[in-house]
Amino acid sequence: MKGALLVLADDGFVRDTGGIFRRFRQSKQTKEAWSLMARVFRRHGPLCVNILLDAPYARSGQLASSMNRWMSEDRVPGQAKTVQGTEKALASIAGIKISADSIIIDNSDKVFDLAGHIIRYILKRPLIRLDVLSSR
Questions:
Q1: Which of 2, 18, 61, 136 has the fewest CB within 10 Å, making it most exposed?
Q2: Strand, helix or coil at 47?
Q3: What is the residue range of 101's domain?
């Protein structure tokens, strides 16, 4: 959303070079990002969307509250909440995980790259492919 360099990693997941989460502040772009996520959720109709945010990060509780409001407005079933240790919490939840975090990818049976899907198929942003760079 902020124009950071986007990389298609060799595992097929899209990652950015922004690294902003510790400095994250909600903005107009936050709501725009949620709108894109809700668009995908509405199209694919999951039974429940549970969003887990790392509790230790500043303002994660505020973001969870905003996401719950947006989920209600957009009729996306589920909830957003803060947890201590998202990796451990996700391990105990069945279903498809949405993440580009390599620890979660490696420890999950089913993972979906929601951000990558939005970037590639809705926003159609250009990506740098790591496998092309490594073959040079």
A1: 136
A2: coil
A3: 6-134
The Cα–Cα gap between 95 and 50 comes to 10
Task: Say if 1 falls within a structural domain.
Answer: no
Ranking 10-19, 64-73, 85-94 by mean pLDDT, the lowest is 10-19
**β-bridge pairing 6-8 and 14-16:** antiparallel
* Under 8 Å between Cβ of 122 and 36: yes
In a domain, 110, yes or no: yes
* Euclidean distance between CA atoms 49 and 76, whole angstroms: 7
pLDDT score, position 22: 60
Q: Which amino acid is at 120?
A: R
Q: Note the pLDDT of residue 133.
A: 53
Q: Is the pLDDT of residue 93 over 80?
A: yes
